Automatic annotation (TrEMBL), chain A:
This is Nucleoside ABC transporter ATP-binding protein. The keyword Transmembrane helix does not apply. It is found in: Cell membrane. Residues 8-239, 258-500 form the ABC transporter domain. It is a peripheral membrane protein. It comes from the Bacteria. GO terms for cellular component: plasma membrane. The keyword Repeat applies.
Automatic annotation (TrEMBL), chain B:
Keywords: Cell membrane, Membrane, Sugar transport, Transmembrane, Transmembrane helix, Transport. GO terms for molecular function: transmembrane transporter activity. It comes from the Bacteria. It is found in: Cell membrane. This is Simple sugar transport system permease protein. The keyword Transmembrane helix applies.
Amino acid sequence: MSTSVPRLELLNITKRYPTIVANADVSLSVMPGEIHAILGENGAGKSTLMKIIYGAVKADAGTIRMNGEDIAITNPAQARRLGIGMVFQHFSLFETLTVAENIALVLDEPFDLAALSQRVKQISERYGLPLDPDRRVHSLSVGERQRVEIVRCLLQNPTLLILDEPTSVLTPQAVEKLFDTLRQLAAEGVSILYISHKLHEIQALCDRATILRNGRVTGTANPREESPASLARMMIGRELPVCEAPPYLGERRPMLTVQHLNLTSAGPFGTSLHEVSLTVHSGEILGIAGISGNGQSELMAALSGEHPVHKDAVRLDSKPIGHLNAGTRRAKGLVYVPEERLGRGTVPPLSLSRNALLTAHRHGMKHWGLVRYGKARDYAEECVARFDVRGGGAGTNARALSGGNLQKFIVGREIMLKPKVMIVAQPTWGVDVGAAAVLRQALLDLSRTGVAILVVSEELEELFEICDSIAVLAQGRLSPAQPKTSLNAESVGLQMAGLFPKTPLTVHAEFDHASA
Amino acid sequence: MIEHLIPILAGTFGAAVPLIFAGLGELVTERTGVINLGVEGMMLIGAIAGFAAAAETGSGAAVGIPAGALAGAGIALVFGFFALSLAANQAACGLALTIFGIGLSAFIGQHYISYSLPGLKPIIIPLLSDIPVLGPIVFKQDAVVYLSLLAFAAIAWTLAKTRLGLLLKAIGESPEAAHAIGYPVISIRFGAVAFGGAMAGIAGAYLSTVYTPLWVQNMSAGRGWIAVALVVFASWKPARLMLGAYLFGAVTILQFHAQGLGIIVPVQFLASLPYVATIIVLVIISRDRRVLQNNLPASLGKPFLP
């Protein structure tokens, strides 16, 4: 194999959308067997660039070369024939089909499921990606689904493999396994484009990194020779913000208590909750780690009141609230920031002041049953000013804001309600580093005023940064909460795989066992 | 006893044909995630197109049924343009298509009110038709009945065993994923919609050129709606749909015989029996909501634009 000709070369790729330039003059090259990182924040243009390479999006200008030859990629099927495989961030799998059927749909070959199943088994064993070809995808864990995507690519013998944020859904142990597989592929000569915003992963895995910011290349580096701080500077253009977590000195009493919560999931592919118990004290942030789909949405529904449960299963400040609906719970001081910002956290086509009204109407915005729009506008404007919401004022529609700014508005709106308990799902999902830091600091500041906060997140780093204690939700069961200081990523990762005692215990002897 | 049953059972096949064609067509359409509520309208357009072609050429059902299929597919493409290309609301487009079909067929049909067609002679299959009981029931049917069995076998096999069947199901579940891996979702959905239209057209043309070889305004009499309901209650499975269609056919023939026997029950009540019986039985069969949800094409009725 020639070592001097790049497997893939991008020259001056530009892609404009009506409102933004997604890629401006982007050039990069990947050698055979190289693991090349594309590092950048959300919205930096990484995904657009990869879609251009995969033929799903057409570039406005620029040249793509493979093995030294100019090529024009017009659709994904052609990209696959050229040896380009892609593992999507949001999986493109069909839940009701089996693993083998899902794979058969992308292969250009005669339809023979039995023979294909054999090959799936062979290749999954060879690369340490165990898979049962006859299982239906909806019964697979997220990590297993990713394996399906990877095996699906490998069966097409790719020479270039693109992975878009592959670890966002994996436990730390599964990440290590994935990295082993990728290193093995690279050793066999496959070039890998690895898209991520996680600095430590890129330093652990990649030979070279191209850093994107606002659609432009801001640097090319060997990530192992850089520090996280220097990579972050190239990625966000300034120093990595750090959160401050002062100790809480006030009174400490249980504010949110969940006891023996059982909930049968309504949907056919949901996860039921079994005997979930937890306590959040005033001034405390409790983090719930775990991969989405392990009962997170069911737990949120039960706690927010969208799905009322048994009266005594949920208590707010020692009073039973399990049977109450979401509005009544809010009136009693429990606020909820849902994962879906558009559609659940806000009504997209309504202005911020109308959206403020949705949850803050109990705070002087009604008079004799009539809405006082002036108050709502003042409230929204105060929220915009206090929480640094950029991109619009009280009159702007919610959908016009970027994810980070909208989240700042939603969290700010709930903080200004002066709650007793706040429940937040995925507080910084899809949010840029700067806004994420503002949000995390806002939660920390709120908790230090004596508010109890429950944070559900897939990002372990985030939980370790802001939480006082962490519990893990796996297959509908919740592990006992443990102080953050007694945990590390590895021990939490083991619990994410479901390795914890089935009856939650609060004795401290438990986590010695779990982390051993 | 058995001698009385033979004509009833034999008649069941013919009475079930319109539901089999219209239902199988709608089943294929819905598998790709498109719900076309215009089946009744497409049947009527197929019925009048088939009748007109048969009457004008003098060739009967041999020309009428292909003509009905073409007309059904053509009008389904109009639905496709609005519901797929423009991503308009599928339910609204389908209802509009039904209303349009009723009106258009009545308008064209004015010319043909006094015509009548020869119908189709049964094809008597040698040897097999001599089998006692079974022979006269199954092997002395018209060509379209045999065609309906072939259509069932071909569609069931395609959906269960071929890549095309898998692809239709995949698109019905997640058009986004199918698009991401490089399939032309809109074109494939257009194909399924046109197929559904052609099948509904055949169903209508069978009614007007074979079953009652006359043109009667609104002659499909709600069979298109029953076909849509059948697809749902059959949980999008061809074999269950056949079961429902034959049940409908059997009760239809039974109530004709009951009318003939002079039972003192209002005719309108008897005429409603096939519809009522079919729906009740199918509701009971499909009472397991999990089965229904597991088979429901997840994107059904949701507009998709790449």
